[in-house]
UniProtKB/TrEMBL annotation:
Compartments, record wording: Cytoplasm
Protein species of origin: Thermonema lapsum
Binding site for Mg(2+) 2: 118, 121, 277
The protein's name in its UniProt record: Fructose-1,6-bisphosphatase class 1
Needed co-factor(s): Mg(2+)
């Protein structure tokens, strides 16, 4: 009777990570701890995001509030929070962030891992209360443990990711991640301060019915992409575009949709960044049964040349990705 009155709230992220770790007898627990550090940073940013309107941190960076304190833009705040959480955690020897020009040596030279983060993606949406997100990607370093990190630790192709995920600060906050064994989603329960498994083993619906792109750039798109969009319209697919990658991707992942950010006149190599945005999303989508390309190549096989490299990006369920591919071939 008591059980019925108090239904279980489900498995927490911490317990889930612990269970997964127990499946690997030789695991040292460092990756598990790293994932927990990211979740902790996510909780702090959730708190920052939710008080942003009142705390005068939606203003532009460099402004001062009435008390004469400098206002911090939320993406700067998120960057500081994340770097601090990862540095304090101790498992990470180096970090690259979309907000930083070059890589950060955390000083934890015994750490086996390096992390790429986009601390708060979709910054143009912050001031208008639209969902935003954090994207992360974890690699094992290639330099020897015990030494400072080197640039090659970060310039690894996406197929070397050990784990990747995002946190979406939406109508609820969710953390979605993969370690290469499927994708799981956790919803933040504020009252107890825990992420709870709410979306186990996410698979993208294979009959995608949504397409997402900035159609204002249509005339800049290649003939193949234009043709594909024409087909989407003919087939009465739904057009959905928030302009916030994490939110657009999250919806497409759960409901079945393709996201396109092709090259444009303004952004000849596409707008999105390979290491911070495309690789983690590509890893998640493949793990959920979909695909991700730059129009020619699998995203995860691209050898990065520099940290802030951009790429055209197409990601979604197989039916739509295959149709897009046919349009490219007819170009
Ligand atoms: P940001 O990293 O500067 O925030 O920009 C990335 C964002 C993505 O969230 C989104 O998919 C894209 O830019 C939208 O671009 P556009 O406004 O050109 O459609
Ligand atoms: Mg970004």
């Amino acid at each position: 009777q008591a059980d019925k009155l108090t239904p279980s709230i489900g498995i927490t992220l911490d317990r889930f990570i612990k269970q997964k770790q127990d499946e690997f007898p030789f695991a040292t627990g460092e990756l598990s701890q790293l994932l927990r550090d990211i979740a902790l940073a996510g909780k702090i940013i959730h708190w920052e995001v939710n008080r942003a309107g009142l705390a005068n941190i939606t203003g532009s960076y460099g402004n001062y509030n009435v008390q004469g304190e400098e206002q911090q833009k939320l993406d700067v705040v998120a960057n500081v929070r994340f770097i601090r959480a990862l540095r304090n955690g101790g498992e990470v020897c180096g970090i690259i962030s979309e907000e930083e020009d070059s890589f950060i040596d955390t000083g934890n030279h015994q750490g086996k891992y390096v992390v790429a983060i986009d601390p708060l993606d979709g910054s143009s949406n912050i001031d208008v209360n639209v969902s935003i997100g954090t994207i992360f990607s974890i690699y094992r370093r290639v330099s020897p443990v015990g030494s400072p990190p080197i640039i090659e630790d970060f310039l690894q192709p996406g197929n070397r990711q050990v784990a990747a995920g995002y946190i979406v600060y939406g109508s609820s906050t969710m953390l979605v991640y993969t370690t290469g064994k499927g994708v799981n989603g956790f919803t933040y329960e504020q009252s107890i301060g825990e992420f709870i498994l709410s979306h186990p083993s996410i698979k993208v619906p294979q009959e995608g019915k949504i397409y997402s792109c900035n159609e204002g750039n249509l005339l800049d798109f290649s003939a193949g992409v234009q043709h594909f969009i024409e087909q989407c319209r003919e087939q009465r697919l739904s057009a959905r575009y928030i302009g916030s990658l994490v939110a657009d991707f999250h919806r497409n992942l759960l409901k079945g949709g393709i996201f396109l950010y092709p090259s444009t006149q303004k952004a000849p190599n596409g707008k999105l960044r390979l290491l911070f945005e495309c690789n983690p999303m590509a890893f998640l989508m493949e793990q959920a049964g979909g695909m991700a390309t730059d129009g020619k190549r699998r995203i995860l096989d691209i050898e990065p040349k520099e940290i802030h490299q951009r790429t055209p990006f197409f990601v979604g369920p197989q039916n739509l990705m295959e149709r897009l591919n046919q349009c490219f071939q007819q170009e």
